[in-house]
Amino acid sequence: RKRAVRDEAERRGLKVFDATCPLVTKVHLEVARHCRAGRDVVLIGHAGHPEVEGTMGQWNREGGGGKIHLVEDIDDVATLQVGQPENLAYTTQTTLSVDDTRGIIEALRARFPAMQGPRNDDICYATQNRQDAVRELAGRCDLVLVVGSPNSSNSNRLAELARREGVESYLIDGAHEIDPAWVAGKRHIGLLRLALLPAD
Predict the structure, then answer these.
(1) Alpha helix (H) residue ranges in 57-165
(2) What is residue 121's predicted lDDT score, i.e. its pLDDT?
(3) Which of 122, 118, 2, 3 is nearest to 50 (CA)?
(4) How far apart are CA 198 and CA 117, in angstroms?
(5) One domain for residues 97 and 14
(6) What is the residue range of 21's domain?
(7) Coil, strand or helix at 85
(8) For this structure, is 51 an active site residue?
C-alpha cells in the first residue's frame, strides 16, 4: 500500500515526505529485495495492521518475482503453501512480541530448514524495551494498567504479556475506563503509557 501511494503521488508530480519508522522501512526494503530475487517471503504479523498492509504492498503483482505470505500464528505454518520451499525468507511485523514470534519462527525453521531470516532482529527496540518494563512491573505489582488505544497492536500485546506474567492487567484508553473494583485491595499498581500517546 505504501509503495502504491508513493508511486501514485510521484506520478502526479507531488513531493513525497516519508515519515515511516526506519526499522519498518528496513523490513520493506528486505521484502522488496527478496521478491525481486524470486524468493517468497513469509511475513509474521497481524492481518489488517497498517504496518502489515504496508509491507504486503511491497510486492509488485505485475512485476513477477516472489510472493508474500502472511502468517499470524503457529497453526498457519502447518497450512502454508509456498512455491519453492528451498528459496524462502521470513520477516516480522516490528511491533510483535518477541515471545510470540519465537515460536512461529521455530515452527517455520522446522518445516523450511533452508529459510532465510532477517540480517538483524526486526523487533522494534522501543517495543522490546516496553515488553521488558512490563515484565519488571508484573513482578512487583498486583495490577498493571496499560494506557493505549484498543486498536494498537503494542498496547494489546503489553496487556497480554502482563497477564502471561501472572498479574491482573487491563488496557485502558484513559482514566475514565478504570473500574474501581480493579483497584480495590491492590497495594501496588503499575501504570504503563506508550510513548506515542499524548501526555494529557
Answers:
(1) 74-79, 98-111, 125-140, 153-164
(2) 61
(3) 2
(4) 35
(5) yes
(6) 2-111
(7) coil
(8) yes
- For the chain, how many residues are written? 200
Q: Report whether 140 contacts 188 (CB < 8 A).
A: yes
Side-chain half-sphere CA neighbours of 137 within 13 A: 25
Residue 200 forms part of a structural domain: no
CA 188-189-194 angle, to 5 degrees, is 145
- Answer whether residue 120 is part of any domain: no
Give the residue among 124, 101, 120, 1 at the shortest CA–CA distance from 42. Answer: 101
Whole-structure pTM value: 0.71
Question: In whole angstroms, what is the distance from residue 163 CA to residue 134 CA?
Answer: 10
The CATH number of the domain where 169 resides is what? 3.40.1010.20
Alpha-carbon span 5 to 38, nearest angstrom:
24
- Give the gyration radius of the chain's Cα atoms: 19
pLDDT digits (tens, 9 = 90+) for 7-59: 888 899 988 887 778 888 888 888 888 888 889 999 999 898 888 888 887 76
Q: Which triple of cell numbers denotes residue 13?
A: 508530480
Considering the candidates 51, 53, 72, 165, report the single residue annotated as catalytic.
51
Cα(89)–Cα(95) distance, integer angstroms? 19
Task: Indicate if 56 and 102 belong to the same structural domain.
Answer: yes
105 and 6 within one domain: yes
Q: How many domains does the chain divide into? A: 2
Grid cell of 193 as nine digits: 503509557
